[in-house]
């Protein structure tokens, strides 16, 4: 679907997967006006298709679009597009227990712009792919390394929305971490360099006794949809839940640490390595 700045998105249509045409001056290519979402469709044993809270993705896209000066599809347009795309690709949804169909909606500034300004035209599209486990080894505990030099987000920036540039910011640290055998990178805040933020593609939780803590949403981490569900679930199960500042040192005393996200679902953390210039700490949870 397309839309000019200040107008509404037109009705979309299904197309065979393929390349799209873009002007070299497109806002997304020059000034990073791009947002995405990620959600999954699951097949159930009785043949139904389940989407996990897709209206939350629609709302998050709209919040992100405001920050990025982009128009966005309505919640209904988003949901209709997701449903139509999933139904058209039903044959690619893995059988129950074997994975899911990952849906990747993209909102981009597709209109041409030369000076720094919002693009005059926008495109909203989505594609799908069957997926299995995000981390090697399935639900086996993952090993994280705390990044002390590079940050994925800074206060006042765009870390709290799902814009494409946030993911370019994590590539460098992620490649280095994977080369050393780690599953992923745990980021710290960019000011004090001691408070937990999140992992490249998921939110983090720390468990101590009956208390489940997770970093508060303050514009530098993504408000994960899985995070919110886990917080609601934990409360309903009688756990004490806190969204707060969590120092990296607190990890030493944690009973359990886990990560949440659409791709990683709920992944247990087996170890966290924190290499400080003066201190070497291997935290075995
Ligand atoms: N943080 C980041 C940086 C992410 O990319 C994701 C994945 N969308 C998450 C957290 C988890 O969000 P959600 O539970 O909505 O997938």
TrEMBL record:
It comes from the Eukaryota. Belongs to the class-IV pyridoxal-phosphate-dependent aminotransferase family. This is Branched-chain-amino-acid aminotransferase. It comes from Sesamum alatum. The chain holds residues 604 to 888 of 888 of the full protein.
